[in-house]
Design the sequence.
């Protein structure tokens, strides 16, 4: 039994410490994608009250690492390739609309720009967790920038579970930052095109970028042999085509 709470001071939030321990169990593969998280089992594992474990589970549901249907135990987030394809189709529409509205409204892009800078720093330092978090921040900032609360809520509901799943798969597979090499350029171009202020062009371009991110996403996250090299080669071809079209 791992007495997680023994290291927590009386003034600390036990649920946050337990949430961190559960997240670590997910990252280490002790809780796999789709696996049930049984409160009583983990209360015994951690030497903690079941109510505290329940609160920790709720924190991880809010972060997207766990999902829960009414009357059922929470489960580790899990997506099949078909699920990913469906999510990216909706992402493209949502983020494309956000880009259009940003241009129409003249919205502030500083949050997106700051997230992109953090992505670049994390990639250079091979800090995968920070790279994925900054990538999430970039896209959340895009959906929040127009100031439309409904659009922002849809973005969060799509992106938090998706990026939690990405983090689980990438870290457990030992993936490095190479898969982001060319995707970074597309993030830079998204900012550039949105800054130009043409709503139609920005919306179309962001939709195309999301489609490109989706093309080899599942295989890349799983670190399937040769997938990163194939993904980067495909992206280089697309970049040359993009430049030739003077988008």
Sequence:
């Amino acid at each position: 039994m791992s007495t997680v709470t023994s290291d927590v001071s009386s003034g600390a939030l036990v649920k946050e410490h337990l949430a961190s321990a559960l997240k670590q169990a997910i990252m280490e593969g002790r809780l796999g994608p789709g696996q049930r998280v049984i409160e009583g089992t983990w209360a015994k594992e951690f030497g903690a009250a079941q109510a505290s474990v329940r609160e920790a589970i709720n924190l991880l549901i809010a972060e997207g690492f766990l999902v829960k249907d009414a009357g059922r135990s929470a489960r580790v987030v899990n997506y099949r390739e078909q699920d990913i394809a469906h999510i990216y189709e909706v992402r493209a529409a949502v983020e494309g609309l956000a880009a259009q509205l940003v241009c129409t409204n003249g919205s502030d892009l500083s949050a997106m720009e700051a997230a992109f800078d953090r992505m670049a720093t994390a990639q250079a330092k091979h800090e995968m967790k920070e790279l994925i978090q900054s990538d999430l921040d970039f896209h959340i900032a895009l959906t929040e920038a127009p100031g439309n609360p409904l659009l922002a809520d849809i973005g969060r509901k799509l992106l938090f579970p998706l990026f939690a799943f990405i983090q689980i798969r990438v870290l457990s597979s030992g993936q490095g930052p190479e898969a982001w090499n060319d995707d970074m350029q597309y993030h830079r171009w998204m900012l550039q095109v949105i800054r130009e202020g043409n709503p139609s062009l920005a919306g179309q371009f962001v939709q195309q970028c999301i489609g490109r991110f989706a093309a080899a996403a599942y295989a890349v996250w799983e670190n399937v042999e040769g997938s990163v090299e194939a993904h980067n080669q495909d992206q280089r071809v697309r970049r040359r085509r993009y430049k030739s079209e003077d988008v």
Q: What stands out?
A: The two ends are 58 Å apart (CA to CA).
